Amino acid sequence: MMEQTVKQTEKQAERQTAEGTNFASLSCKEFCRVLASREPVPGGGGASALAGALAAALGNMVGNLTVGKKKYAAVEAEIIACNERAEKLRERFLQLIEDDAACFAPLAAVYRLPGATAEEKEEKAARLEEALLEACRVPAQIMECCLEALELIAVYEEKGSVMALSDAAAAALLAGSALTAASLNIRINARSMADRHKAEEITACMEERIQKGTARADEIYRRAVARLS
What we know:
mainly alpha, Four Helix Bundle (Hemerythrin (Met), subunit A), 7 helices
């Protein structure tokens, strides 16, 4: 009986932590604890956005290790501009963690709506379509931010401090993985949409971003490895 009460308390604590929480403000340890819980948010989308933020931050680190060095004086202005963009991009990724969690609640609520009568079914179907479309919007934005991050990381890898070359490569891999991971939320929601034309349009855009992003990440990684060999 006591064990059951403890488990119920733990579940309640997990639920309270997940609801109304600014996930981006949690410590790494706490974020992972909530991510590992039975709560639906943060899920794959939030984790993807966090990976994107880490990629932007790691690239930014390369830039900060480059600025102020005489060896890189010729590219300092460009690196400083990249740093400013990377900082904004990192904040954008962190906001997308919250946005991803926020768009899940309406979708979950729609699935719980009654659908016994024809009128209820029609209302539920219409609202579900709207919620699914919204649920695709945030991961699409995460993917777009990952593409931007990769362009910055390419500059860091090419012109940044050679002492942080491995970090630039790691940033590229993180951004590429975040992009691919975010696409999965689009897939799972688009497949449930009744408007197949719209769903295919969204999926086609997603596939294009995957192809572009993974190719870019692989290019940066391979170039860095060749320079490190």
